[in-house]
Amino acid sequence: MTTDSALLRAEAAARARSAQTRKTIRSAINYAVMIGLAFFFAFPIVIMLVSSFKPDEQIAGDMRSLYAFIPRNITTENYSCADYDLATSDCSPTPGENPGLFERLPFGRIYFNSVFVTASIVIGGLLVNSMAAFALARLNFPGKKLLLTAVIAMIIIPFEALAVPLLLQVNSFPWIDGSSTWINSYQVQIFPFMADAFSIFLFYQFFIGIPKDFDEAARVDGANIFTIYWRIIVPLSLPVFATVAILQALTHWGSFLWPLMATRGFEFQPLPVAMRVFFGQAPRQWGDIMAFASLATVPVLILFLLFQRWFVQSVASAGVKG
Amino acid sequence: MTLNLRTSSAQRNERMAAYLFLLPAALLLIVFSLIPFLSALRLSFTNQPLVPQLLPDGTQRSADFIGFDNYSDLLRVQLVTLEPELGDDGQPQRDDNGDLVYPRARTILRGSDQYEGMSELTQFDLFGTRYLVAASDPTWWRSLFNVFTFVIIVVPVQTSFALALAMLVNQKIRASNFFRTVYFAPVVTSMAIVSVIWFFLYNPDQGFINNFLSIFRIGPFQWLDHPASAMLSIILMSIWQGVGFQMIIFLAGLQEIPENLYEASALDGANAVQQFRFVTLPSLRNTTIFVAISTTILAFKLFVQVDVMTFGRGGPEDATITPILHLVNEGFRGSQRVGYASAIAVVFLLLVLAISLVQRRVLTQKEA
Predict the structure, then answer these.
(1) Is the pLDDT score of A296 beyond 80?
(2) Which residue would you say has higher pLDDT here, B54 or B11?
(3) How far apart are the CA of B188 and the nearest CA of chain A, in angstroms?
(4) Quick check: A125 and A223 in contact, CB under 8 A?
(5) Which chain A residues have a beta carbon less than 8 Å from that of B193?
């Protein structure tokens, strides 16, 4: 009897141990897979960052070994700049060094172009798209169904298909400063993208789910429609505002085709287009290119790190699933 | 009576407010989407150039209406049966391998007015006969072939990869936040910028990727430099850059599945595979449809990677040309034929529209 139960206990302990071992092995495999994948997603970015701190001549050779990931002979010559001029974002070359990124192009200006255009589209877009969605979701007016269908249909139209006729059109648009064309300007990069059918649709989906009682209670209290939008609907919809802002910011931070067509020089070009130009320019110095790529990437990466957890939540609650 | 009056004035107010709220977005959409769309339609029937010719009197020469010429230049294909070359003895000639010798495509196409403006797209053998397919714009057909290859590989691979990643980072384990961030990192880099980085990594002689693979005695590959691997290189990089976004969408979907569904199925004796099959997948149905449809539309617009990595040429040998790159090259670079590019735009638009309608129907039908 006692031996039996002792045997049973020993068996149970052994089984628990082997279950424990199996669990450990499974967890080890799990981590190995995740670390392998992390390497796959991170290696280009790590190589980019590390290479940007190496002398040009060394970068390609280091790709043959683990040195691709190891900073050695660290230099800041790719980033270097004597007497930086904030107004023109020019700087004079540092004597005795290969000319770096800042000495070869007005990088500060290009950076500003990207930030300014993206921010304008996002902020303007949040306003006009949420207003339109508010009317579609919560107000009654003739032609509502038709407009909603039109918005949904417009989601499918790829901008790329409209780019060439749009270019002809904006070529002869006047602007408030008296110029007779929008080519090579900020407005040409901002206004075509402010209103966005998909953003309207996301707002619409969220707004339609807010109980009607909220506006009715406010109306009884004498609130007008603008107050209802600004004081009730907007504060209740912050997740969808966040999601639309992130989606729009990611899209337009990477904007390429349209600024490629509608801008001519570094004065108005954003980072992606300037990168293509810089990449095609002789001499192709990889150190400078890596410095360019790092500076264009790292601040956005940091922003994402700060808001990461919040971002997943907002995508979930905004119901981005069509 | 008074009540009635008040409601109607309230209704009028509401209507006015609605139009005011709609006005900015509507105006912008009309000016920057609707009008360009209509003018793409109109221009596609003209020979409009990008820079209008100036007439001696200083006015601009207006474009001519040319009917469906752009469309026929874009879409015209012809099947030509090739006859083997005959030797001096009147018998079909054979080369050293014993294969029949056919005349050169160019000789045939130059030989008849019927084929004017057409060049070789491809040749194939069917039931012992050799056929030549000639097209007036072989690059267009090649670009369609390329983009379909891209879509057919990227959409299923990226969607399932994204789901797998989402399930990995959804586990309640240490550092899952770290992995989430790393997998998502490529999404916040812009495509033009990472295209340049990958161009460097893909270098066949000194690039990191070939050096890395040589550790496992794989390769070396020519990557972007060879027609057979160029599109695959673009595909690999595109998945690397884009999959993290779909991962987040799936992750959001996964987190909405109630925990008790898993508990109940575990009590019923379901194993992990069965739980995935009967709990996870059905719960993610809407998310999957959204991801598949949006990835498809995005994939058809393939342009940035190809433009940067091939310097706008879509090479080598048209292996990576895409409809949008062809459109930009025709309408904006080189010949600057806006009319022709507009015809490409219209055909492309109809194609994307048709495919997303079909896809929506097929994917939402499984519901029953």
Answers:
(1) yes
(2) B11
(3) 6
(4) no
(5) 271-272, 275, 292-293, 296-297
Token representation of residue B322? 């895409």
Rounded Cα distance, A114 and A125, in Å: 16
On the question of a cis peptide bond just before residue B220, with omega within 30 degrees of 0, the verdict is yes
Q: Out of A135, A165, A271, name the one closest to residue B21 (CB).
A: A135
Residue extents of the structural domains in chain A: 2-69, 106-281
Q: Which of B182, B189, B203 sits opposite A38 (nearest CB)?
A: B182
Measured between alpha carbons, how far is A159 from A37 in angstroms, rounded to an integer? Answer: 34
Per residue in A267-294, pLDDT tens? 999 999 999 998 888 778 888 899 999 9
On the question of pLDDT at B108 being above 60, the answer is yes
Query: Residue B153's closest CA among B233, B207, B93, B223?
Result: B233
Is residue B367 scored above 70 in pLDDT?
no
Looking at A211-215, B2-6, B211-215, which range is the least confident one? B2-6
How would CATH label the architecture of A106-281?
Answer: Orthogonal Bundle (1.10)
Measured distance CA(A100)–CA(A82) in Å, rounded: 11
Domains of chain B are 77-135 (no CATH), 139-365 (1.10.3720.10)
Sheet holding B129-135, edge to edge: B77-82, B129-135, B119-126
Lowest mean pLDDT among B109-113, B165-169, B224-228: B109-113
**ipTM exceeding 0.85, yes/no:** yes
**Is pLDDT at A1 greater than 70 in this prediction?**
no
| Joined tokens for residue A145 | 């169904």
Of A218-227, A231-240, B145-154, B181-190, the range with the highest mean pLDDT is B145-154
d(CA B194, CA A48): 9
- For residue A139, the distance in angstroms to the closest alpha carbon of chain B comes to 6
Across chain B, which distance is largest between two alpha carbons, in Å? 106
Task: Return the pLDDT at B2.
Answer: 46
Quote the tokens at residue B147: 């983009």
* Distance separating alpha carbons of residues B195 and A254, to the nearest angstrom: 12
Q: A317 pLDDT exceeds 70? A: no
For residue B175, name the pLDDT band (cuts at 50, 70, 90): confident
Burial state string for A35-64 with b = 16 or more CB within 10 A and e = fewer than 16: eebbeebbbbbebbbbbbbbebeebbebbe
Alpha carbons B21 and B15: distance in angstroms, whole number: 10
Sign of dihedral through CA atoms A261, A200, A133, A270?
negative
Peptide bond into B36 cis (omega under 30): no
Burial state string for B203-225 with b = 16 or more CB within 10 A and e = fewer than 16 = bbeebbbbbbeeeeeeeebbbbe
